[in-house]
Amino acid sequence: xxxxxxxxxxxxxxxxLVRLDGSGAVELLADEVASSVEQxxxxxxxxxxxxxxxxxxxxxxxxxxxxxxAGLKMSDVDAITVTCGPGLAGALLVGVSAAKAYALSxxxxxxxxxxxxxxxxxxxxxxxxxxTPCLALLVSGGHTxxxxxxxxxxxxxxxGSTIDDAAGExxxxxxxxxxxxxxxxxxxxxxxxxxxxxxxxxxxxxxxxRDARNDFSFSGLKTAVARWVEAREPEPIPVDDxxxxxxxxxxxxxxxxxxxxxxxxxxxxxxxxxxxxxxxxLKELAAERCAAAGITLRVPRPRLCTDNGAMMAxxxxxxxxxxxxxxxxxxxxxxxxxxxxxxx
Length: 344
Ligand code: ATP
Ligand code: MG
Ligand code: FE
Known about the structure:
It is a single chain. The chain is of the alpha/beta class. The chain has 11 helices and 10 strands. The chain has helices at about 35-40, 50-70, 90-105, 115-125, 165-175, 185-190, 220-230, 240-265, 280-295, 300-305, 310-320, and strands at about 1-5, 10-20, 25-35, 80-85, 110-115, 135-140, 145-150, 155-160, 270-275, 295-300. It has a 5-stranded mixed β-sheet, with helices on both faces. Strands 8-7-6-9-10 form a 5-stranded mixed β-sheet, with helices on both faces. The longest helix is centred in the C-terminal third of the chain and has 27 residues, at about 240-265. The protein is globular and about 65 Å long. About 50% of the residues are buried. Adenosine-5'-triphosphate binds near residues 172 and 189.
């Protein structure tokens, strides 16, 4: 069974192809991404209208590249999965409209599916089936959540989330403060590796004894970094040390809370996904703390952590394998789709 995945929730046009075999194994056949990130860089964030137009222009060429890479024809496709939320309304609509047109013309079932569940499903392309229950730490540009996954296609429950900024958003805002380019994750990660993570004691949000156990807060940290830099001016800013100290605060809170949630829930497997899962210190600290707590850690390679179509194709394979009903062709985009709605 060949499944086509289409992703357009933000600024990446992603087209992926996977094969689901009779045993339930999912094999990655193609993963093509066209990004409009460079068009947004000078604005310091994604401009929705620019993203929508870029998706329109990139959809057909990206589709073609994916089929070429897999050595498949359109007529080989047995089912289509498309991100129908959460994300930018105009951007989502480009993917949803394209997917409907392909599904109608090919006469195959269409699954409107959740981008966040797709981020978690990405890991199965690298590490195989996810044992359940497992805990997913989803850390991306727009979301920071702790999820209890009882079935990738059937049951995902949010047990905690950020009460203000997402972790990736904090990276992007701190990069601005430090005059580093957008998106901020990669340049801060690189600077942090040259700096001293203990140089500055930045706050760890929501870690007090009476604070919500599974929730996160990063806006205080972002403000603390901005205040520290302001107070320092006009002296030169030790960018590497600030980046390392900020990164340490983020990785510390994320891993401490995720590991504790596993212990609380009696869960033995943790998967980290979303763009921030590409972060070197987060992976290192998570590996250390999971090992100490006897938890198996899974983190997909960076390419599968950021937005792509293969993750949606993988989620589609799990939906098909679980016998979940396909969507109606009048499905629409839902910018605020909750993670518990895995498919519509
Ligand atoms: P969402 O998935 O919540 O809708 P999104 O799709 O925009 O948001 P992703 O593409 O999953 O988010 O991730 C993008 C984010 O990941 C950006 O904020 C970026 O700065 C961050 N990021 C990428 N690489 C790294 C890294 N090495 N370290 C930290 N953050 C990173
Ligand atoms: Mg992106
Ligand atoms: Fe994403």
